[in-house]
Amino acid sequence: MKKTKYLLPVAAAGVLALTLSACSGNSGGGSASTASNDCSAYDTYGKHDGKTVSVYSTIVDVEATNLEESWAQFEKCTGITVKYEGSKEFETQIGVRAQSGTAPDVAIFPQPGLLATQARAGYLKPAPKTVSDLVDKNWSPDWKKYGTVDGKFYAAPMLANVKGYVWYSPKTFKDKGWQVPKTWDEMMDLTKKIAADKTMKPWCAGFESGEATGWPGTDWIEDVVLRAEGPEVYDKWITHQIPFNDPKIVNSFNKVGDILLNPDYVNGGFGDPRSILSTAFAQAGQPVLDGQCAMHHQASFQAANWPAGTNVAEDGDVWAFMTPPVDESKGTAITGGGESVGAYKDTPEVQAYLAFMASADFANNRVKLGGAISANKGLDPNNAQSALDKQSIKLLQDPKTVFRFDGSDLMPSAVGSNSFWKGIVAWINGSSAQQVTDSIESSWPKS
Predict the structure, then answer these.
(1) Using omega within 30 degrees of 0 as the cis cutoff, is the peptide bond preceding 267 cis?
(2) Which of 334, 329, 356, 354 is closest to 344 using CA atoms?
(3) Backbone angles phi, psi at 148, to 5 degrees
(4) Residues 6+ apart with CB under 8 A from 425
(5) Residues 268 and 294: beta-carbon distance below 8 Å
(6) 310 near 317, Cβ under 8 Å?
(7) CA–CA–CA angle 285, 291, 294 (5° rounding)
(8) Phi/psi at 371 (nearest 5 deg)?
(9) Per-residue model confidence as pLDDT tens digits over 248-270
């Protein structure tokens, strides 16, 4: 999502046409995933000599090459040829293909909403029990839910991304004696302290993203709804069991506004708060390196937005901490995204491929190549190619972590990739949180 694909809100991904490679700060291209003669780990998938499985997804370029490399040994050992096609037009074309009877055998969906549409239209096959059992074993129930439609399980999770990081300069923090905050209140206290210091603005931000301008602001709001109101309210919000303009959501806007709408707190290196809308999201964090701002809120893909040569490490030029909880006693809550693997056919070779993609073998193969992470509990974090990826995997695998999928990607597109984005723009431009949430609520589809 968020293309860098699994970074941008999935809906934005379709607009921006970036590449998946930036997701986690390492574009990959690592060593091949061992095309050895040892097939013992693949016996469970059987032999399917001469069979072909077609796979269609949004993943292109280097990430597509790495994806194909991750199942090369599976092909060799099972005799299955995986015919892969990546396309930036996936979101619009998958439905067309299904309607015309030319659907691929397997599709990798970046949006649970699109997956649900295809399942409810009757095009997708329910996942085999083998795949369902693997998902029960390797993922938390939250992740299985994103591939489940009306109580029927269709698609296993694949890769993942983590949002809600706050990027900072470890050297600046050390020189100034600032501590990484553990709660929202501590973060606000630090914000006030930095503003009072007057050597830099506490925050820098940028929401400009062409037709998708505003989406980075939705990530801010989603993070605060989850942390301040909890997962139950978050779930009711994204499914419209409470209105978009519920007082809890209005309060979350105002909580974020305490930072983003305060000219004393933003926008380091760019101007007043309204400069947020004219600052490209990919460049918005640069003033952290220049000493013009102290913190920048952005997903793990921000690691790829720093200039070449920037050392992303806990003791390096930049590092990141997770947006802290409002109530520390409630533990860690994070938002993120990922893909799901669903099938239009249920042949033995397709079922074998689906089982492999749900396995820890695939997750380890792919993560070793760099530029990707997964919430698969069988994934060894030490296979990640960067310290941030290791940290993100550990967060995803921690049973104490509350994870929720990107809210705007789960909402109807008329809201999630339209009125929500536009509402963020209006809000930064001066409309009140109540006015903005009222407007978004009125845009929610009636059926």
Answers:
(1) yes
(2) 354
(3) -110, 130
(4) 207, 213, 214, 277
(5) yes
(6) yes
(7) 60
(8) 75, 15
(9) 999 999 999 999 999 999 999 99
Q: What is the mean pLDDT of residues 53-60?
A: 94
The SS3 of residue 385 is coil
Rounded to whole angstroms, the maximal C-alpha distance in the chain is: 69
Q: Name the nearest CA neighbour of 340 among 184, 113, 183, 151.
A: 113
pTM confidence score: 0.83
- Cα→Cα distances 298→59, 165, 176, 225, 377, Å: 22, 5, 23, 16, 25
Q: Report whether 244 contacts 415 (CB < 8 A).
A: yes
Contact call for residues 276 and 204 (beta carbons, < 8 A): no
- H/E stretch holding 57: strand 52-57
Within 10 angstroms of residue 41's Cβ, the number of other Cβ atoms is: 13
CA Rg value for the chain: 22
Helix (H, G, I), strand (E, B) or coil at 295: strand
Rounded to whole angstroms, the Cα distance separating 62 from 64 reads 5
Q: Do residues 154 and 135 touch, judged by C-beta distance below 8 A?
A: no
Tell me the pLDDT tens digit for each residue of 6-32: 344 444 444 443 333 333 333 333 444
pLDDT digits (tens, 9 = 90+) for 392-432: 999 999 988 889 999 998 898 889 889 999 999 999 999 99
Beta carbons within 8 Å of 238's beta carbon, 6+ residues apart: 407, 410, 411
C-beta separation of 6 from 110 below 8 A: yes
Q: How far is CA 19 from the centre of its chain?
A: 13
Cα(208)–Cα(221) distance, integer angstroms: 16
Q: Give the separation between CA 208 and CA 217, rounded to whole angstroms.
A: 10
Neighbouring C-beta atoms of residue 1, cutoff 10 Å: 33
Beta bridge partners, 208, equal: 280
Residue whose pair of structure tokens reads 């806990």 in the numeric block = 314
Average pLDDT value for the chain: 90
Edge-first strand order for the sheet with 201-203 is: 201-203, 293-298, 165-168, 319-322
